[in-house]
Specification:
alpha/beta, elongated, 11 strands
Length: 298
């Protein structure tokens, strides 16, 4: 290719990772027709069809599969060059997308948006707080907070914090039921929890109590929905302490005998870790968690 264009390759990577022109265009801040033209130009320059088009989206052809590793290496070199040439000395600008569990994202990360915006007006933060996992390898996010350390991929991780979970209920629920003084008293109680077949991480499977027959009668895939149902008196619920302590309408139940501990990990792609915009966001996340360490461990 005598007139190779890096932006054509960026378009290729975005479409390969998202499988749709419109999604790829939104990620790159381009029009979807521009993405389409760049893909066509790349295919023409290479003399090979890179995608099979269908109503379900864009799927890589064997030629596209062969191009993918080389394209990612070029992307990695480009990002490394940007960092090595002194981005740290420039104004912090650009988009940073953070993926996080909905509870941590809503109660810990969301309040950080204001100070980040004040300190770095050229920075655009996209906070994706969901019941699921975003792939850093596929560039679905730049930074991720996860419930376990990644086992594969060119990812850099560090333990952010351990955190506690306890059993909580609303006074209205507790007042209408027999007293809960021991673990055995949990039998026959209503519980609020996750939908078992929609658990996206084994760390969220809280309801395995071999000594008590627990029935989860109110189920949701979303932690915030579970919290609101518990506040309304739907039943007992295992909740992260760093969220529950902010709710005056909740009572901690059996604090001496029902307590779990989990961990949160901060993960970035190895190619991005030295970029200034990534560093300022990860540094603020770490500093915020350290400042509230007592909130995470009760």
């Amino acid at each position: 290719m005598s007139d190779f264009n890096w932006n054509d390759l960026r378009a290729f990577l975005a479409v390969a990772r998202t499988t749709r022109l419109t999604t790829a265009a939104a990620r790159l801040g381009m029009d979807h027709t521009t993405i389409g033209r760049r893909i066509a130009a790349l295919e023409t320059g290479l003399g090979a069809r890179l995608f099979d088009r269908s109503p379900q989206g864009y799927a890589l052809t064997p030629h596209g599969e062969r191009l993918m590793p080389a394209a990612e290496r070029i992307e990695s070199l480009t990002l490394t060059a940007a960092a090595d040439l002194g981005e740290a000395d420039q104004a912090v600008t650009g988009v940073v997308r953070i993926g996080a569990p909905e509870g941590f994202g809503s109660y810990v990360l969301a309040p950080l948006m204001a100070p980040l915006a004040e300190r770095h007006p050229g920075l655009d933060i996209q906070l994706v707080a969901i019941s699921g996992v975003l792939s850093l390898s596929k560039r679905e996010a730049d930074i991720a907070v996860t419930l376990s350390a990644p086992r594969e991929g060119r990812l850099v991780s560090r333990k952010l914090t351990d955190y506690g979970l306890s059993l909580y209920a609303a006074p209205a629920y507790l007042d209408a039921r027999p007293p809960i003084r021991t673990r055995a008293d949990m039998a026959g109680q209503r519980f609020v929890g996750y939908i078992e077949d929609l658990l996206y991480s084994p760390e969220l499977d809280y309801m395995q109590a071999p000594d008590v027959d627990i029935h989860v009668s109110v189920q949701s895939s979303n932690l915030i929905a579970q919290l609101q149902a518990t506040l309304a008196g739907a039943g007992l619920c295992v909740l992260p302490d760093f969220i529950a302590v902010r709710q005056p309408g909740l009572v901690r139940v059996l604090p001496e005998t029902v307590h779990l501990e989990r961990s949160l990990w901060l993960v970035v792609h190895a190619d991005l870790k030295n970029l200034a915009r990534i560093r300022v966001v990860t540094d603020m996340i770490v500093a915020s968690v350290r400042a509230d360490r007592d909130l995470f461990k009760r």
